[in-house]
Amino acid sequence: MVTEQTTLSNLAVEVENLERIYKIRGSKKEKNVRKELVALKDVSLQIKRGELFGLLGPNGAGKTTLIKILTTLLAPTSGWARVAGYDVVKEPGKVRTQINMVSGGESSGYGLLTVRENLWMFSQFYGLPSKEANQRIEALLKIVGLEDRIHTKSSDLSTGLRQKMNIVRGFLTDPQVLFLDEPTLGLDVGASRDVRHLIRNWLDQDRSRTLLLTTHYMVEADELCDRVAIINQGRVLACDTPSALKQQLQRDALFEISVGALNGLAVPTLERVPGVRKVASEESEEMTVLKFILDEDAALGGVINKLTESNVKIVRLDKHEPTLEDVFVSLVGRSMAEVEKEGSNGDGK
Amino acid sequence: MQNISALNRSESWRSFWMATWLGWQIESNWTDPFLFAVYSIVKPLASAGILVVMYTVIAKGNFNTPIFPYIYFGNAFYIYVGAVMSGISWAVIDDREHYKTLKYMYIAPIHIPAYWLGRGVARFLTGSIAVVITIAFGALFLQVPLDLAKVDWPLFFVSLFTGIAMLAMMGLILASITLLIAHHFFLIGEAVAGALYLFSGAIFPLDVLPAWLRPVGFAIPITYWLELMRRSLVGNVAQAFPTLSHFSNLQLVGILVGLSVIFGIASTFIFRFCDYRARERGLIDRVSNY
Ligand SMILES: Nc1ncnc2c1ncn2[C@@H]1O[C@H](COP(=O)(O)OP(=O)(O)OP(=O)(O)O)[C@@H](O)[C@H]1O
Ligand SMILES: [Mg+2]
Predict the structure, then answer these.
(1) pTM of this prediction?
(2) Does A73 contact ligand 1 (Cβ within 6 A)?
(3) Ligand 1 mean position to A343 CA, how many Å?
(4) I need a surface site. Which of A8, A32, A126, A316 has the fewest CB within 10 A?
C-alpha cells in the first residue's frame, strides 16, 4: 500500500534546528538555583527511507535525548522534527503508528509473563492479527537464538537475554522507522553479532524500512551504518557515510605510539611539534597510548625526538588506516574515552 | 473521517482489552492461592470486623438502630473507591518504576486512558468479590437488614454502574497526576481514598461533620453514590438522616450522573495537560533512584 506520505516525501526523519534544554534543580542547599543543561543544540538531520543511520557519540552526547524526541516521549525546547512525515509534537499519535523503539542496557518487560506472552501482548497493542504475531515471534526468536526460551518467564532470563527479547519486540511490529538506543550495550560478542545480523536482514527485506541506532562502539557504527552522525555535547559535528568521513583523513598520517610513562610531558607540548595536528592520549595502568594525526609521515621524526628528549620510553609504534575513532579525535581533539572520563569526573559521579 | 473514527474506536478497544488481560495476569499472579484467598476475603472481613467492634462499643451492642446498616453498607461499598481509583492510578507507577515499560506503552499506537481503565478492571473484579463477601457476611451473621425481595434492583444497577464509571474517571485523574509526581507519592490512590472516606458519608452522616466541612462532602460524587447504594438495598433505613433525605432517588441519580459527567470531562483535560507537561519535562521514562 502506498500511503500519502511515501509519495510526498522519501525522508523518514527530518530534524531542523532542534534544541533541548533540561532544567536541573540544585541540591537541597541551593534549591532555588536553577541550572540549565543544553542536551541538544541546533541539530539538523535528514534520514532517507531505507537508510541505516547511526548516531555516534560519547556518554552524555545527547543521543538518547534525540531518540526520545523523535519517539514522542520528550518535547523539544525549540526547533521541529518529523518522523515518517508527521510532526512529533503536533501529531504524536500518527508518529506512533509508524515507529517502534528499544533501549539497550535496561531490563524492561513484565517479568511475570513468559517471553511469548510479553511479545504477543505488545503485538496486540499494535493491532497485529494474533496468528501472524505468533509466527513472527517464533521466527524472530530463532534469529536471535532465543527460541528455546519462548515459554520462560521473562523474570527468569538473564539481562542479556531480556535485552534480546526487547529487541525482538522492536522488530515484531514491523515499524516504518525503528529506533534502537545502544542495542548491543552489555551483550556478549555472539549476541551482538546476532543482533547486527537481525538489523541488516530486516532492512534488506524491505527497502522502505528505516533504522536509526545509537552506539558508542566505533566499529559497530563503521561496519553497520550507511551513514553516521558524530555527536558531542549536543552538537552534530559531522554527518556522512563512514568511508567519506574517513576519506577526509586519508591524506593525513595516523600513528599510534604506546609509551611507558609520560614523565610530566604534556600533550599540548607534543601538539606544538611542527607537523602535528592532533594528539589524544589514553592512559591505562602500565601504559599510555598516544594517538597522533600528522600532516605527513615526515613529521614523525620531530615527535620521536621530543619523546626521547623527555626520556619517554616508546614501547610500540603503529601506523594505521583512518578509523571513525580518528575522525572523532580530529573533530573533538580528544578520544571518545577521554571525553567520557572527563564527563564522569565533571559530574562528580 | 469515518475511517479514522473507526480506527480510533478499535484502538481504544484493543488498548482496553489488552490492558484488562495484562491487569488480570498481574492481579492473579499469586504463587500461593491461599495467600490470594486471604488477601481477597479475609482483608475486607477484617476491616468490617473492626468497624463492627467499634460500633458495638459505642452503641453498647444495639444493632437495631438505622446507623448500623448505614455504616455497614457505606463501608462495604467504599471498598470500590480504593480498588478502582488506586487500581487505575497504580498502573502508571507499576509500568514506569517496576516493569519499566511505560515508555513502550506510550509510544505504541494505543489510547492511554483506555489502557489505564483496562488496567483497573482486575482490581474492580477482586473488589467486587470483597464487597459481596462483606455484605453476605453482614447479612448472615451480623443482622444487617437485607431482604433480597425488597431490593430496588433497577436503582441498584443504575447506581452501581454510574458510580463505578465515576470512580474510574477519578482514577484517570489520579493516574494523570501520577505522571507528574515522584515515586514517593506512590500511595496517592490509597491516600486520596482514605481522605475521602471521612468526607463522603461512608461511616457517618455528613451531619456529624462541622458545618463548614460539609460542603466538601456535598461536592464529592461518592457521597451521593453511597446513599443511592444504601437506598436501593435497604430503602427506609438509609433515609433516617437529614443530610440527604430531602432528595428523591431520582434527584440523587441526577446529581450523581451530573457530577460524573463533570469529572469525565475534567479527566480528559487533566490527562491532556499532564501528558503535555510530562513530555515537556521528560518524566515518562523517569525512574526514581531508590
Ligand atoms: N531527565 C533529565 N534531566 C536532566 N538532565 C538530563 C536528563 N536526561 C539527560 N540529561 C542530560 O542531558 C545530556 C544528554 O543526555 P543523553 O542521555 O541524551 O546522552 P547520551 O548520548 O544518550 O549518553 P549515553 O551514551 O550515556 O547514553 C547529559 O548531560 C545528561 O546528563
Ligand atoms: Mg543514551
Answers:
(1) 0.89
(2) no
(3) 11
(4) A32
